[in-house]
Amino acid sequence: MNKISANVILSLIFIQVLMTSNSSAQSNKNGRSTWSDLSTEIQYLSGTGKDDMVNWDFYCSEGMKSGKWTTIGVPSCWEQQGFGHYNYGHDDLDKRYKEHGLYKYQFAVFENWKSKDVKIVFEGVMTDAEVKINGKLAGEIHQGAFYEFKYTITDLLKYGVDNLLEVKVNKVSDNESINYAERKADFWIFGGIYRPVYLSVSPKENIDRLAVDAKADGAITADVFIDSKKADKIKLTLFDLKGNKIQDIKVEDIQKEEGKWSVSAQASNIRTWNPEQANLYNLQVSLLDKRGEVLHVVKQRIGFRTVEVLEGDGIYVNGQRIKFKGVNRHSFYPKSGRTCSKELSIEHVNMMKDMNMNAVRMSHYPPDVHFLDVCDSLGLFVIDEVCTWHSPHLDTEVGRKIVEEMVVRDVNHPSILLWANGNETGWNTELDDDYALWDIQKREVIHPWNIFRKTNTLHYFHYHALANDGYKKDKIFFPTEFLHGLYDGGHGAGLDDYWTQMWNMPLSAGGFLWDFADEGVVRTDKNNVLDFDGNHAADGIVGPYGEKEASYFTIKEVWSPIYIEDRFINDDFNGTFRIENRYHYTNLKDCKMTAKWVRFNGPEGSTDFDILSENRVDLAQLAPGGKAAFNVNMPSNWKSSDALHLTATDLYGKEIFTWSYPIQSPAQLNQDAVSDKGKGKVKSEIKNSQIIVEANNIVFTFSEKTGLLQEVKKGDKVIPLKNGPIILGQNDKIENVSVKTGNNMVEITAVFEKKDKTPEWTTHVELSSDIIKWTIYPNGLLDLSVEMKSEKRVTDYKGISFSFPEEEVAGMKWLGDGPYRVWRNRMKGTKFQVWENDYNNTVTGESGFVYPEFKGFFSSLYWAKIKSENNKGFTVFCHSPHTFLRMLTPENPSGDPKGRLSPKFPEGDISFVKNIPAIGTKFQQPDTMGPHGNSENYFGNADEPIVIKLTFEF
């Protein structure tokens, strides 16, 4: 058995010293008391998280490493330490594994603790926990995996000697409603003492707990729960987080009843809490006896803010109507399951803030305390939730205990705006009014996926539901789950369309994406493979270890609090941009913006760029919700720049987003690179139904019947670009192929049969034909011009395609939008510049997890250098604006039986197209996700054909 180590004792001494140093040491009249005597001390019996565990003795009843006593790190999920069995929540309950674990740990307590009040606190145990101290039950068996519970063990301890802690943990609860609520859910099921365990040591005369309501106007009401017969007075003092005293707060009123004193007071000159400026304070509550001597001191971190849910209007925080830019988040890490750490909480919240989110929903259970602490300190609105999953719901008796445990633990977090009484029909309506019994702030209760009281939290609705014209259209509308992010679908895909409507709907309070991270678990029983239980857990914006998918950056742009109206830069550009302040609390004068006029290197240069001019943009005064315009300084040589980059940073210096705008057209920018065609002769001949052209030691072979490129050979190496250009969607016959020769070029032209392109509203017959034209120059440059009939509506691809073996591709470098691929309904989040990606075969959210994905569609192509291991690559310059590069074909994910996440790709391997498909979600086809998801592209009836012009360099 493990005894308390010197490190634990040193930790306790450190905590005492720290508590003394964080506040001025004070004495009673006899000069003997210090803060460490009068405050609550913490002694950890376990570690504090996934990276800090303490070994306890352990026995597992069945499964891996079962049937013998050994040791296990605490806190942990025992499966991740190689014990027991794995279950996903969708497994049949009658087939669930029912192992139990036995824990033992020896610890010592100080002799002088005899005069203290000692509690043992478990922050989370899965699922039923029986606790004994020195062979005696500490209290009733606790049921419920996600809730903090504690026992007073003062009378069970032996002071100055070793004590024995024993815990029996049943992975499956004896309460079937808990099993349905927690273990039949859509997430991984674990067992064990997975959150920290510690002793809480207070003076005998003590404050058991606090519940505080600190309003935006400085008004404070607090319920002080007291375990004392000597207490007579309460003193309130406000400190900043550095320990500096701000003010003594006069108690204006106090109502005393047995075990609880209700206090009213008023602070002055405070700064309010909101997610943009997360101002926090420490409220010190001192319990005094009749002589004014301090009995106990408690510090509670608070934020001053007021939450109002106004029926038929909206959700207000500090008088400002807010919109949630939120995401659902599980407490999860692949190697440790539900055992997390404060460092992981900080990492996750920082990523959410970086995506310009302002809210997070706890799905589907209360998180670690440190996650809520980080939401308080870095600034996120929170919906806190009791764990249930569909029907049947929690029974009322155990449900009331669970509600109490959640609210009592979390009541003082300013980040929490709402309570969720379970998930998706799992709510027990008999518990709806229980939250107010424990919540001094009386926050509203919601039913996620339901119309309840003042709110409508519909899940996974079609875009057209944003009409909000149903029989409950007066409800405050915010989906607690929408745009399900399985694999590469949802999240950023569709968000621009949804958010345009949601931002402008008066009764919309925003929404929450599903979900933050792919929850792949490292299977200790399967050689540590990552397991997502098929398509059940691959729903993240980021990968299992925080790898950023493309939607991460789309969300960052769409949810930018600085909204810049889309525009293009051309010769008529006047330097003006229209802007909207989509912050709730921040004036744009507190943000900064920098304009950079840049010039890029070519295919043989680096991915860095030269800054021709850089200057600050004056955003001036613009209050939240305001609209205005700003101007960028236009240097005299601005037209010689390749692009303008606008970078905005917030009041903390963090990037909000960088917008990019091409200045040169593709033809203008590429003019110098392809202008020198070389001198000399180009040889050509027609032989065996092939057109063979030789220039600069490069031999091109074309089909005499179709004009398609069949082979490129440079010296003795075959460059395997061939079988193109296939005109996509083209079924017309070739009318003729002609060859025109000259001293400086050879032209090969293929003309297709003419087809009627008569507009629908006229009887005039207009004939048009598609044309392919190759031009070969002496230096080996190969020009291609393809003219295609203009069409009003297009449901197939409009563009051209070539074959190029995937095994020959090592990577690509390109000038265009990147570094991530795009879909028609996920165009935002990229930046226009030179990028370079190595080949990978990642299937988003399923395998590889190397991002950006190499395969897919890339927008705004100017040029691309296709790299090959065998020097068989090439460079292509695109002279036509608004052209997409299609690079190979991504593998379809295996868990997409309805094909919503597997858009159809054109034939061939490398394509140049004018339109691309949208992508759906687990539950929706793209057509139901807004205008950009529509499968029809409206090109209009242009007088000119659609033209794609390229130059190939081998």
UniProtKB/TrEMBL annotation:
Residues 214-305 form the Glycoside hydrolase family 2 immunoglobulin-like beta-sandwich domain. Keywords: Calcium, Glycosidase, Hydrolase, Signal. GO terms for molecular function: beta-galactosidase activity; carbohydrate binding. Residues 311-432 form the Glycoside hydrolase family 2 catalytic domain. GO terms for cellular component: beta-galactosidase complex. Pfam families: Bgal_small_N, Glyco_hydro_2, Glyco_hydro_2_C, Glyco_hydro_2_N. Its EC number is 3.2.1.23. It catalyses: Hydrolysis of terminal non-reducing beta-D-galactose residues in beta-D-galactosides. Residues 696-881 form the Beta galactosidase small chain/ domain. Belongs to the glycosyl hydrolase 2 family. One of its GO terms (biological process) is lactose catabolic process. InterPro entries: B-gal_small/dom_5, Bact_Beta-galactosidase, Beta-gal/glucu_dom_sf, Gal_mutarotase_sf_dom, Galactose-bd-like_sf, GH, GH-type_carb-bd, Glyco_hydro_2. This is beta-galactosidase. Its cofactor is Ca(2+). It comes from Labilibaculum antarcticum. Residues 70-202 form the Glycosyl hydrolases family 2 sugar binding domain. Residues 1-25 form the signal peptide. PANTHER family: BETA-GALACTOSIDASE (PTHR46323). The lineage of its organism: Bacteria, Pseudomonadati, Bacteroidota, Bacteroidia, Marinilabiliales. Monomer.
